[in-house]
């Protein structure tokens, strides 16, 4: 077992401990946590946040985009001013901010992560508002690195790719869309047991390659649960294997066409029947990997692939986001937003804001 196996297994063990605690609590749904008094004060209007754990103005770059706890209204928290902007449009409590910060995709209804989402494109800033309805999506949408395109699955094995500037749309094969750092579109085939990864409609990783790290019968059905890519081209894939004795999830780490490691994850489920391995996500710099059940649902652990250690163990979150450079990590939990620095042993800042969904966008371009 290589070092990557060891560090990720350590993260999984931390997630497992939290999942057991969660089960003992009765598996309650992860509902948004009530705001503290100071958070309510800030939620009433655009207001500067204050307190000993709040960063000084401009200590951090960019802004946090969030859905607040008072109607899940879209809001932007400027880190330059440490000011929570005025409430924007009401959302369904889920959001995906553009990497360039001008727009965000939001849900318009609360439907649950396993049901089709009704999406809309929202403008951020002083004139925040819904720009246009995007229709229903299966799964979550994805932004291109330059913020000029977004993609979402409409079912039937088809993904819509929309040019934000013109509104022009085209269809691409596959679902679970994700843009790689070079701008290419990665998707999964429509057939659930067609375990391949597609790039712009062509096969990037074949089923035989994905099976190469498994000690199973070659006829055993497999399915890709989740995947993500790092800026340097590394790929993390969680693979569901349907054994006769029960299904098992394997986490694979790839560098190009070379498999670096593959190992089984504990058979664990979080609230809402989400399975461990349903979420794998690289930080913007590729140095960190989040492993969990689902974004905004259940516990997530963060693994530092550069330092070969678990960086943040098992946090029950309503959303998380890295700073655009990957140095800082913000996690919405327990009615606050905690921000971790380059050393992740404890949060550096704690903002008195209760949030559902979280994004970190760069400062406005000059």
Concise synopsis of the structure shown:
This protein has 3 helices and 30 strands. With 366 residues, it is mainly β.
Description:
The protein is mainly beta and 366 residues long. It has helices at 3-24, 37-43, 207-211, and strands at 47-48, 63-68, 74-78, 83-84, 95-97, 103-107, 117-123, 129-143, 149-155, 158-163, 169-173, 175-179, 185-188, 197-199, 202-205, 222-229, 234-243, 246-255, 258-264, 269-270, 274-275, 279-282, 288-294, 297-304, 309-316, 319-322, 329-333, 336-340, 347-351, 355-361. The strands form 7 sheets. A 7-stranded antiparallel sheet has the order 5-6-7-8-9-10-11, with no helix packed on it. The chain is globular and about 60 Å long.
Total number of strands = 30
- Can you tell me the residue ranges where pLDDT is under 50 for at least 5 consecutive residues? 17-45
How many helices? The count is 3
Mean pLDDT: 86
Radius of gyration: 20 Å
The biggest sheet, with number of strands, parallel, antiparallel or mixed sense and barrel status, is: 7 strands, antiparallel
Tell me the quaternary state. single chain
Q: Helical proportion?
A: under 10%
Strand order of the largest sheet: 5-6-7-8-9-10-11
Proportion of strand residues: over 45%
Question: Which structural category do the helix and sheet elements fall into?
Answer: mainly beta
Distance between the termini: 48 Å
Q: Could you say which overall geometry the principal axes of the C-alpha atoms support?
A: globular
């Amino acid at each position: 077992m290589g070092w990557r196996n060891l560090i990720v297994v350590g993260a999984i063990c931390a997630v497992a401990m939290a999942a057991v605690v969660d089960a003992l609590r009765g598996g309650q749904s992860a509902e948004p946590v009530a705001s503290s008094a100071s958070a309510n004060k800030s939620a009433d209007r655009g207001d500067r946040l204050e307190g000993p754990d709040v960063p000084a103005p401009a200590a951090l770059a960019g802004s946090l985009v969030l859905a607040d706890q008072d109607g899940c209204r879209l809001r932007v928290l400027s880190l330059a001013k440490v000011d929570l902007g005025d409430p924007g449009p009401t959302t369904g409590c889920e959001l995906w901010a553009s990497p360039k910060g001008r727009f965000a995709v939001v849900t318009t209804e609360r439907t649950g992560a396993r049901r089709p989402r009704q999406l809309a494109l929202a403008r951020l800033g002083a004139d925040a508002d819904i720009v246009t309805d995007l229709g229903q999506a299966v799964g979550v949408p994805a932004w291109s690195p330059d913020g000029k395109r977004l993609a979402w699955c409409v079912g039937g094995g088809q993904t819509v790719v929309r040019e934000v500037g013109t509104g022009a749309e085209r269809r691409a094969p596959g679902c679970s869309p994700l843009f790689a750092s070079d701008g290419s579109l990665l998707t999964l085939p429509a057939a659930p047991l067609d375990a391949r990864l597609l790039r712009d409609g062509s096969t990037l990783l074949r089923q035989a390659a994905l099976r190469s790290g498994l000690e199973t019968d070659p006829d055993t059905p497999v399915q890709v649960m989740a995947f993500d890519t790092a800026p340097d081209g590394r790929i993390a894939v969680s693979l569901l294997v349907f054994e006769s004795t029960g299904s098992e999830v394997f986490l694979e780490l790839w560098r190009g066409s070379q498999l670096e490691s593959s190992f089984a994850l504990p058979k664990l489920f979080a609230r809402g029947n989400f399975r461990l391995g349903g979420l794998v996500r690289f930080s913007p710099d590729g140095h960190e990997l989040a492993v969990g059940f689902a974004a905004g649902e259940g516990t997530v652990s963060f693994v530092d692939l550069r330092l070969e250690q678990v960086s943040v163990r098992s946090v029950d979150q309503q959303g998380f986001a890295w700073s655009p450079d990957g140095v800082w990590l913000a996690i919405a939990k327990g009615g606050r937003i905690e921000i971790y620095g380059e050393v992740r042993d404890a949060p550096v800042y704690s903002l008195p804001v209760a949030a559902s969904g979280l994004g970190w966008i760069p400062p406005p371009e000059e």
